[in-house]
Model the fold of this input.
Amino acid sequence: MKENLTVDEMKKLARFGCLAPGDARWEMSSSTGWSVAHVAAEEGRLPFGFGRWEMANNTGWTVLHQAAKTGYLPPGFDRWELADRDGWTVAHMAAKSGYLPPGFERWELADRKGWTVAHIAARYGRLPPGFDRWELADHDGWTVAHSAAQEGRLPYGFDRWEMADRKRWSVAHSAAMWGPLPEGFGRWALSDRTGWSVAHSAAGKGHLPKGFDRWELADSDGWTVAHAAAMKGKLPEGFDLWGIADPKGSTVWHAAAYSGFLPAGFDRWELANRNGRTVAHWAAQGGHLPDDFMRWDLADGNGWTVFDAALPKLKFPPALSRSEMLEAVGYMAVEMMEKKGYVFLKR
Done:
C-alpha cells in the first residue's frame, strides 16, 4: 500500500475511491500523518458506519477534529473531550466553527493553557442565550467574559465589569478597547496593577463618552488619560487641558507632539519637562517636526539638542553641496550638521 500520498492523490481517493467503512486505505496519508480519512471528513464524504474517528495526524489532530471543523460529526457524537497534543478538543473546534449542538453543556473543557470551550464560543459569538458561566478562566485568570468583551460580544445588560485576570485587567478594560461602554458606565477609575484605568483603555481608542471630564486620572507613572488620548490623536475637539503633566513634567503637548497630533498653529516648541526635554524634542523623536521648523539648537539639561533628537528620523537628500543643503533644510540644520561632522559634496 502506497504511503506519503500527495494532497491531490488523497482528495481523489476520498472523493472517487468508493471506499468501504473498513477499507484500510482510509489510513493512507502524507508525511504529516494527514490521512485520506481527514480529507474525507473535511468534505463530509465518510461513509455511514465509518469507525476510525480517532485516527490522528502527527500533531494529534483526529478525523473527528476535522469533521467538527466542517460540521460533519456523526449523529449522536459524544466524544467532545478528545484532544490533540495542545489539548485542543473536538468541542473547541466545533465551538469555533459553530457546530456545537443545542443543549451542549461541557463548557469547562480546556486546552493546556486553560482556554475553555466557552472562551472559544465567546470569542466567535457562539454562546447560547442565557449563558451564565462568565467566570470560567484560563491559567492567567482570563475569563470567558474577557474573551467576549474583546470582540464586542457581551450580551445586553452585562454588568460584571470588575471581573479581572491575575494582572487585574478587568472585563471593562477589554470592552473599552473594543468600543464605547454602555451609557451610564461609571467605573472609569477601575485599574490594573500598573494603575492603567478603564478610562486609559477607552481614551487610546477614542471610546470615551462625550463630556468625559476625568482627564487627570493617572497610572502608577503619572501618565494620565489625557496623555493616553493625545498619543493616539483621540482628544476631543475643543480640548483645553494641554498643560496636564506627569511627575516628570511631560505635558499633554509632549505626548501629542511625539505622535504628530499637536493642534494646528502650535508654536510653544520650547516648553520643557523637568529634564529639559522640549515639545520639539518629543516631536523630533517621533519624526513629526513641521517642514519649516528652524529651532534645531534647543537643548535639554545635558545639551542634547532637537537636532540630535531628530537625526535618526531625518532623511537628508543624498550628495548635496552646502548651498544645496541650506536650501533643503535651512541654515540652523546645516550648522548643526557641520558641528556633527557631516561632509557636504564639493562641486
